[in-house]
Amino acid sequence: MHKSSTDSFPPQHSSNPPADAASCPIAAPKNASPNTSSAPSRLNPLNYMPSTLSQERASQQTRALPTSRTTSSIPRGDTNTNWEYPSPQQMYNAMLRKGYDDTPEDAVESMVAVHNFLNEGAWNEIEGWEARFSGGLFDGWKACRRGEEGWEEMVLNGTWRPREGDAPRLLRFMGRPGDMTPKAKMLDWIGRLYPAKFGGEPPFDRHDWFVQRTATDGTTKQVRYVIDYYSGPPEPTGEPVFYLDVRPAVDGPTAACERMMRWGGDVWYRASGAKAREQAIEAA
């Protein structure tokens, strides 16, 4: 599980929103009722959002909301551009679509900022997985055998260099807030069994992101990532804290190996005393 950092929130603004108003990483509304014929044609298949999210002011709206959209750092899989986040006006209209008629208008801009921040944090985690494993399991083992701290050291001192090739791209995504992942269910069950030690709130949201991975030979494959979103205790200053648990979905043996290598490598490196031995060798 990883705590989000404000370092991953790029403020790039676009004052001219494109016609594709649904091209933003945002969870799909469950009870949308657009005025068109069939459900598949009403939804953008890349993000399961209505094909158009209005920038028009709502009838009950009492204050103007910005219509500018923020460009994310997340490359799209269908074009050479990046995904764009919804404007505050689009976010407000989407909330009304979902039936949240009591959404405070003065809180919408903050909601958009948090939404964008969490998505940037999720993509940052996915890039970490892809940096380790897009070159294959052997490269992944070399990246993971010294745990998380060892990986960070290799990146900082230049002994781990990213392979040449295309960076990962986000093909599509979908929000699944009502479907707990198996891992989240297990953690929730353990928390109920041992509340004093492992108790906590279940994730407040879940996303599935489908990422294009380019192998060393130039071939591409789709990798599904699951993301659990957790709320943590607020900072002493009152600022909210969120934790993201991002990992490849176990859709096959390769993904299972990747998860075991990364988490198992970190546990073994720390538990076996390998770090202490390395430090002793350096000091000798």
Explain what this protein looks like in three dimensions.
The protein is α+β, with helices and mostly antiparallel strands. The chain is built from nine helices and ten strands. It has helices at residues 39-42, 88-97, 108-133, 137-144, 147-157, 182-193, 195-198, 253-271, 274-283; strands spanning 2-3, 12-14, 43-44, 49-50, 69-75, 82-84, 169-175, 205-214, 220-232, 241-248. Strands 1-10-9-8-7 form a five-stranded antiparallel beta sheet. It has a three-stranded antiparallel beta sheet with strand order 2-5-6, with helices on one face. It has a two-stranded antiparallel sheet with strand order 3-4. The radius of gyration is 21 Å and the shape is globular. Residues 1-41 have low confidence and may be disordered.
Major sheet, described briefly?
A: 5 strands, antiparallel
Strand numbers in spatial order across the main sheet? 1-10-9-8-7
Q: Alpha-carbon distance between the termini?
A: 36 Å
Low-confidence stretches: 1-41
**Shape descriptor:** globular
Strand content: 15-25%
Order of helices and strands: EEHEEEEHHHHEHHEEEHH
User: What is the count of helical runs?
Assistant: 9
Question: Based on DSSP secondary structure assignment, what is the total number of beta strands?
Answer: 10
- Category from helices, strands and their pairing: alpha+beta
Rg value: 21 Å
Query: How would you state the average pLDDT, rounded?
Result: 80
Secondary structure: helix percent:
25-40%
